[in-house]
Amino acid sequence: MKRWSRALHRDNLHLVGKLVVVCALMFGFGYALVPLYRAICEALGINVLSEVERRDLAKNSQIDSSRWVTVEFDANARGPWDFKPAKNFVKVHPGELVTVNYTFRNRQDRTMAAQAIPSYAPKQSMAHFHKFECFCFNEYTLAPGEEKEWPVVFVVDPKLPKDVTTITLSYTFFEVPGKKLAQAKPAKAGA
Questions:
Q1: Hey, where are the domains in the chain?
Q2: Does 185 have pLDDT greater than 50?
Q3: Which pTM value belongs to this model?
Q4: Which stretches are transmembrane (predicted)?
Q5: For the structural domain made of 69-175, what CATH number should be given?
């Protein structure tokens, strides 16, 4: 009876080992599938993913030159920051790709982490304001006195209702609470 139970135990361990190997192989195959698919598509010249992206870009790049929309930029800082747009407003044709830079400066004598939160007016314009690149997507760390400039790259959708002629894009720049950042070291006397 003991030989039989030892043999059964050994067989069970052998089966579990095979199942672990099969699971690892399945995970590896699933993980490698996307890069493998892209490599095969590029090698064969079909590149389906890029064609879909190009179609979406072409669809979004239709510029409505028959009208203008004024986009106003507002900057609010909650904390010891200098925060402002390079331009107070721009006039754009819907569908036109536009870049506007914002400048940030940490006025504190310590390193700080912060992030910007956007808001839009009128409210219905939010669905028609498409940002491709924005400093509001990330959290940033600025050293004492450090100044940075970051862009907002956007398109106003041509489907924006005709009665909306002005969009206000407002950002509020907040310090991110709870971050443990290195403090600035005081300067030595006579240095």
A1: 2-45+49-56, 69-175
A2: no
A3: 0.59
A4: 12-34
A5: 2.60.370.10
